[in-house]
Structures are given as C-alpha cells and as structure tokens.
Amino acid sequence: MNQGQEQFLSFILERVKDDKVEEAKVLLLENFKKLSEGKFTQDDIMQFIPKMIALLKPEKLEEVQTAVMQFAENFSDLLPKLG
C-alpha cells in the first residue's frame, strides 16, 4: 500500500460507523490490492460504492464523496476507464 492509499484508508476509517471499522478496512484493502495489481474493474467500483456508503456515518457522506473524487482524480491513470 502506498502513502496515498494509507492516508485515504485513515481518512475513511475515521468516518465509518464505529462498529463497521474492520469491515471497511477489509473492503478498502481488498480494493487497493486489486488496484495495485491492475485488476480493479468498473464492476469492482460499482460493487464498492454502495458497500462503502452503507458503512459510513451518514453525516460524513458528503465529506467522503468529495475526498473520493479527489482521490480518483489523483489516481485516474490507475483506475479503469469508465464508459
């Protein structure tokens, strides 16, 4: 896991429901692994988003959405092309 992923992981885990932190960590680490292996697909994204939203504290959703968009822009060369 690179430094950007570690920062993103910490950011997200601080905003997850207290009883869902481990579940969120596993989900994020699985997706980071796929991303680093070049195996992260559009289908992975479509499955990841609703799962992660369900784990977040409702009052943190907008803040996380903003951060995710920034993360996606910074790592757009690694993400699968959409559309």
UniProtKB/TrEMBL annotation:
<protein>
    <submittedName>
        <fullName>Uncharacterized protein</fullName>
    </submittedName>
</protein>
